[in-house]
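Support request, please re-run this one:
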Amino acid sequence: MHANVSVAGELKSRKKKKSTPETQFRLNLEQCSKTKDLPTAITLFNSATSGDGEIHLNQQHFNSLLYICSNAVTSQDQSQRHTAVEFGFRVFEFMRSKNITPSEATVTAVARLAAAKDDGDAAFELAKSVGGLGRLRTYSSALFCYCRNGMDEKAVQVEEHIVSLGLRLEESELAALLKVHVEKGKGDKVYEYMHKLRAAVRQVSESTADVMQSWFSAELASKVGLENLDMDQVNEAKLRNGGGWHGLGWLGKGNWVVQKSNVTSDGVCRACGGQLICVDIERAETEHFAESIASLALEREVQSNFKEFQDWMDECAEYEAIVDGANVGLYQQNFADGGFSISQLDAVVRELYARNKKWPLVILHQKRVKGLLENASSRETVQNWIDQDVLYGTPYGSNDDWYWLYAAVKLECMLVTNDEMRDHIFELLGSSLFFRWKERHQVKYSFLKGKPTFVMPPPYSLVIQESGTGSWHVPLAGDVDDESLRTWLCVNRSRTSDALPDRSTSKEPSEDCQHNGLNERCCNSDILAGTNNADEICDFKTTSVTDVSQEELNLSGNNQSPGKTLEKKIGDLGQSMEKGQSKESNQEVMTTESTRKGESTVKKLTEKEDKINAWENFDARVAKICPQKVEVEAEYWASSVISHVLGAHPPYRVMNAFYRHLWGHLGVDKVLLLPTGLFLIIFKSMHAREEALKLNIYHFGNGHPVIVKPWTVDEGINYKTVSSVPVWVQFPNLELKYWNPDSLSSIASILGTPIMTDDLTDSKKRVHYARVLIDMEIKQEVPDEVLFEDEKGVVQHQKVHYEWKPVVCKSYDGYGHDIMSCRKHKQPATLAPQPATKKKGEDTEWRKVEEKIGGVPVALSDTEPLKYCIEECGLQDLKQQGTLHTWCNKQIGSARIYAKLDRKMVNGDWVEQYNHSITIVLTEGISDHCPLMVQLEMEKKEGGLGIYDARTWNEAAILKQVWWLANEKENLWLRWMHEVYLKGKSIWEVDNKVDSSWSWKQIVKLRDKAKERFNGGNWKLSKNGIYSISSGYKWLQREGEKFSAAPVIWSRLNIPKHSFIAWLVWKGRVWTKDRLSHLNIPVQDPLCCLCEQQEESLDHLFFCCKFSKDLLSKIKAWLGLRRLSVQISK
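Re-run finished. Output below.
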């Protein structure tokens, strides 16, 4: 028995097991994988595959070796890259000779090796060999290889194949495709990939923005574009696409002007004055979204009830706002005398009617409506709603959420609710489509002294936007505390006469503006979901309830349709602008001409630096600036300097502290960030400014030069026009006889103009290297060593170390590094492969965008280091069940933030051993974090409870159908399958077609997964070749490590209840007092309740307690044992 095994014998056995060659090889290989030690890995592989002591290598070993090789191909050492490629292919060939089927991780690593040889064809063919198991990383190497070598057509083929597998390209892949088409000068493809980036990412990285800038700066870009396109056609296209883009192609012709700017809180670009908008989902997406909601509702509701609601909506529903009646009526009613507040709901209805003289639609459960009608105090109000078709009562037993959500989507109108819409039914809607719709259409509310105030959707969306004039606004990714500090690319044609005419702007709403409804904008703006011209959005600030007479509230008239035609909306726009023109204003810059149909054309005056007199072509007023006023204003800025850190872009808060620390003793008044990315420092006096400019030699961080120039009225500073900068240069191991100033100056003059030495060099207190400040030319050669002739006439070689290199990266014109060491130039696809595979569709698409709701968005640049670390470690998220977000700040209303901060990450070994394990997210308690529990669906012999996994059992049952089709059993179903899908072919030859049914796709998918286990029509895991579902289930589950105590715990002689308790004890899951204390659960008395002498624990309860000892002594006597362990683990 186990009790008779001595501790010394067990330790000896474990030590012997650890000293085996296989174990030692595995440990050494793991160490090589962590340190990326290629030479040692080669030595290990050679020793393991040569001689009589050949070690059996499994797939995990080969994956580790190939991972090391694929990581080494990114080395700067060309010989090491060559060695890594050759060794990697040798490992791969040896693996195939051992008949080991390559996994997705294997193919990904080898594809990266092939791409390192610039063999994109081989990389692509390898990637396709894994079939439906391929992931984006599997194909990325081939795509990057083609793009790097200018093979745009083959790169597009890879993209099409990736999309056909249901995978989504990410920013790095789309940016590579954009770049190769920019280099090829294919304007139409550049336009296509600009829109693909718009649809895939909300903000772009700096490197992607640089690719875009390179296109707009090219001469070809100025010649590509459509002219004289009908503005109504553009507006209709934008309306159809949600307002943020038209998709008709490049508009206008002429040179592009690219500026980096910021956007005001109202969405106005500071560079061009263009108005960004809150982008809606596309019209086709809206229809699909409404159909999806309806189909889900029909599955969960009584079909006749919801179908009746759909019919009613189609016939008579014309509303511009939907109100979640239950949410409004129960808002903040969680007090002693609280209940359903009809007054709150009535106040919201009145306010909505007062805004645009149109009734909203209130969705309320019929049971609630009946109760309100029975109450004398609320009967009149509710009856008035019913008479005006304001109220719709959802039937008994229904969920009113489906009704108000469908109505708001179907009518494309606003939804008034504070519901965060995070219930399980909304998780079924899933994709980012729902969250984009919610951002644009949800109106939240609060009450102040019984009067409602509305929080309207944001004035603009943080996405790439294309205007009706052909201009572009591209947000750059970054962590900013204030969105007004975010950097945007503003791209416009330099001559507006070549572009489409645009409507004029007005910084303030017209006094006569009557458009106060939820779905209207001010008279100088586009329609709510319309074009993205430089138009001002009506500022829906917090307003109180407008006093409305009872006569107005009882007006019955028909509601206006929210879906106005484009002509009607333009007509309203023209009429409103005619009213606004009746008032004289010095700020008016527009003229309107009403057409017979009420349409209006508005000309926009756009100021241009290269065309000062452009206003003469327009019938508009021009303001003249008084020179004396300019001089007065210039005096305020006279004590300022403009500064920039060359080769770095520190955030504002860092540079604010830097400048104040540097010049705080002189008196710094303000530190401001300019739209160009430069910093404006205002001193309290001119004397302080002159003192700051005296030295003019400053450095930031790791030697980055800080450029400082005085602010002037007529010119600013552009860091890209700087010709030379002071750089600290080190001369390591310089002989001491050359440390005199003249010798150092002679050596340093080879690189530039010597300025000074540092204090330690001057005082000779540090002799490891001499440090000299040299004024060096930008873009000059920076040699690693310099030559000088010594006193004997012998040429000496002296190494040079630059604390900052005055070089320009050819990849994106950045400073301080060359293209070889540029992080932006490196392809992310060459990072470490993950050894584990993941099923397509699991934990990929839904994670990225919606892991946080509310608060400040997480910048992609902040998450990249962790992302790379996770990939290098070969980790991935374990499948999760329950709510997505695991943390909440427990605030109320719009201040509430949800985020996924907790996750269970596993490696390839875990996935192989516990391939059906899941993470269960439990309900949060007193903590703001949700506890996570990992559930392992294991058999009893492996330490589990033996509960079958239904999903795996279903897969095993599908494999039964594969076996039937392979053996051509005669029955009606098989004949039908042969007739429809096989068509004379065997089950092993047919492909998975796009238009096939879902069930057939699952059959083919599992056929590929289990193909190696079939020998023709015979099942290899059974003696007679007949497939059984139980044998298929065991194979799919994959047996794990045996649990030694399982035969004792689950013996048939045991009582089931006792077996389960014993299993809990062996797993350490009994809620003893020491475990409760470890989990921070308060325990009044930690002592054992039996002996009250020691802390209660498992070992104490079963072995150390005096009651347990008495019981064990009797057991020993009964069984005749001389020794029994005193620990659960023994």
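Residues 964 and 974 are 8 Å apart (CA to CA). Confidence is low (pLDDT under 50) at residues 1-8, 10-17, 496-620, 823-849.
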